[in-house]
Amino acid sequence: MTSPAGRISPRSVVVVGGGIAGLSAAWELSGGERPDPGAPRITVLESAGRLGGPLHSEPFAGRMVDVGPDGFLGRRPEAAGLCRELGLGDQLVAIGASGASVYARGQLRALPTGLVLGLPTRWWPVARSGVLGPAGSMRLLLDAVAPRPDRRGPLGDRALGPLVARRLGRRVVDVLVDPLVGGIHAGSVADMSTAAALPLLLAVASRRGGLMRALRHGSPAPAAGREDGPAPPLFWALAGGMRSLVERLESELIARGVEIRTGVGADRLDRVGDAPAWTVETRLGSVAADGLVLAIPAGVAGDLLAPHDADLATLERTIEYGPVSVITLSYPAEDSSLPNGTGFLVPPRSPSPLAASGGDDLLLTACTFLGAKWPHLARPDDVLLRASVGRFGDRRAEQMDDDELANRVVAELAAVLGMTATPTQTLVWRWHQAFPQYRVGHLLRVSGIEAALKRLPALAVAGAAYRGVGVPACIASGREAARSVRDAIAGRPRVPTTGSGPPS
What we know:
Layout: E1 12-16, H1 20-29, E2 41-46, E3 57-60, E4 63-66, E5 72-73, H2 78-85, E6 92-94, E7 101-104, E8 107-110, E9 115-116, E10 119-120, H3 123-129, H4 133-145, H5 160-168, H6 170-185, H7 194-197, H8 199-204, H9 211-218, E11 235-238, H10 243-255, E12 259-262, E13 268-270, E14 278-282, E15 285-289, E16 291-294, H11 298-305, H12 310-317, E17 321-332, E18 343-345, E19 364-369, H13 370-373, E20 382-389, H14 402-417, E21 425-436, H15 442-453, E22 459-461, H16 464-467, H17 471-489
Parallel strand pairs: 1-2, 1-16, 2-12, 7-18, 16-22
Antiparallel strand pairs: 3-4, 5-11, 6-11, 7-8, 9-10, 13-14, 14-15, 17-20, 17-21, 18-19, 19-20
């Protein structure tokens, strides 16, 4: 592309979406850890009034608490690595406790040891915990003494819940797998893609013998110390909240000359000729771009892409999202006693012990003991709890106002934990499109999206909708999308992508 004076003007890239995937894409386009003087002009458009999407923190009870993700996996390097690139390495806080409970058979019971995302690998720890009850434990024992063979042979994908139920019993699904794996995705394992959510299970399910034994031998060994230091913790948080990562990215990007526009989204995408490849229409005018990264919810991306590729738009629009609300509560420490561990899970369809529930199931899906999980949030005079409600198909929380929702959560916590104290502060935060649903065939759908992207010039999509919902996966997705677009506008062969790496 040349200017009127005949000089070669720098290439330009527009990133639509200012969540962590979009910001990571902009960071990579600008050179990543080492600023690139030859980087394209970069514009980030974010329709909301702030950056970060679900990565958001609010002041509460004298400290900064996260109202979206409160940490990220340590075994994947992308998030901790980005923090260190940005000079936030000294702000990383390792998880401060281990273990959790599950609300099973009317009370909290410690989760048994040896679980792989809710899947038992040994019978005795599960039986001893009592989470399944006598009948469920005896059904699980069959996998060790008389396993059911899998005669279906290798398949590209299967529904996670039915696969586990056939091998280990329905109670394992209801009490362990659905609260853990289903809870991660705010959905149900009844139609969840095993290939996308738990590929290890798909790999070992067709082996001869019991599934628990196959999981024991197929699971990665616990991380050991590395040559450059000890193994990372299971989870990291940031001392200033996840918002500090967003704020540091914003300030560093602005310092590199990246233009960031909040309150301005993409209304339409146009293509006129080949140079520039795209024109992004916004409420404040148009922005020309040689390359484009769409780091927005899949349905929104589908609407923008519909005039250019109907098949691609259809694939994007079929990815649905589940809602989640996060309620943070502060209780007086002297009136609050909590079980050991980092919190508890609530299986779907758990009957409520509340007399006023009218036979309704518990609304809670999980509760985190923030001071136990994250040492930097612990205070001697109060106890912080973080309650989660909502999943795909459950609209009850959306039908309540904030006060009704907080009161219902307080009552359920009192019933489950036996707490008689009244919270001194509460904070309700709602995410209406929190988690994309990875249904059976999800990776085939993503492959179709990637194939369709080949038909459009210098375009990539990124975010949680494709190959992982966790913060590290979204960072990897954004950076890979940036590399794809950068190669395309430089004339290098490219493979259009939605991100890479295992789901998390």
